[in-house]
Amino acid sequence: MGSYEVSPEHAVASSIRMIQDGRVEAVKLEGGIELAPTISRITSIGIPVLGHIGLTPQRSHSLGGFRVQGKTAASASKLLTDALALQDAGCFSLVLEAVPAPVSELITEKLKIPTIGIGAGNGCSGQVLVQIDMLGNFPKGRFMPKFVKQYANVFEESKKAMKQYREDVRSRAYPAKEHTYPISPEELQEFEEILKQRSAEFEDK
């Protein structure tokens, strides 16, 4: 938020920095037709842009929170207008977030570029999910959007592993011999002799 909204020139400068310092290959901007001039400016200098319409998390406060977009004919029509404008501005693909599945499918059919859905049904060209959501890498009580399918429970498995680690450390079962580096018996014996010779030093301390 704030890296591209001020002006097209500001967005271009931010995009160049992302390419140079972040070593990315493309940038993503959230917003509709109002961002078309900015996206056109960025793509005109050879930086690929991924668009993002529907629920735009950076603008969620102006949308009344994390709410589904395109639930009426008028708002669905607005999404199509946005999608076509971003396609014309040079976006190589669009993210459609929290949009009714039939609306996403119809918009996808009208576009020449692929769509990536998140909470937008299986009629999009592809899908994306947040990794910590799909892997269950969070504690109980965290809000989960309706569209998330949890494929694992990494958080609980991690807790089990950390508890076992704690128990192994306390009982000295870990680190075991196979987790340590060896020293030859001869070198160890020589080191022990050095310790005996220096025992007076330790007693003084």
TrEMBL record:
SUPFAM superfamilies, per database record: Phosphoenolpyruvate/pyruvate domain
Catalytic activity entry: (6R)-5,10-methylene-5,6,7,8-tetrahydrofolate + 3-methyl-2-oxobutanoate + H2O = 2-dehydropantoate + (6S)-5,6,7,8-tetrahydrofolate
Pathway terms, separated by semicolons: Cofactor biosynthesis; (R)-pantothenate biosynthesis; (R)-pantoate from 3-methyl-2-oxobutanoate: step 1/2
An example Gene Ontology CC term for this record: mitochondrion
One Pfam short name: Pantoate_transf
Molecular function in Gene Ontology: 3-methyl-2-oxobutanoate hydroxymethyltransferase activity; magnesium ion binding; methyltransferase activity
Keywords, comma-separated and alphabetical: Methyltransferase, Transferase
Class of enzymatic activity (EC top level): transferase
EC number: 2.1.2.11
InterPro entries: Pantoate_hydroxy_MeTrfase (IPR003700), Pyrv/PenolPyrv_kinase-like_dom (IPR015813), Pyrv_kinase-like_dom_sf (IPR040442)
Stored CDD domains: KPHMT-like
Gene Ontology process terms (BP): methylation; pantothenate biosynthetic process
Keyword Coiled coil set for record: no
Highest taxon in the source lineage: Eukaryota
Family, per entry: Belongs to the PanB family.
PANTHER family for the chain: 3-METHYL-2-OXOBUTANOATE HYDROXYMETHYLTRANSFERASE
Annotated protein name in UniProt: 3-methyl-2-oxobutanoate hydroxymethyltransferase
Organism of provenance: Tuber borchii (White truffle)
Organism lineage: Eukaryota, Fungi, Dikarya, Ascomycota, Pezizomycotina
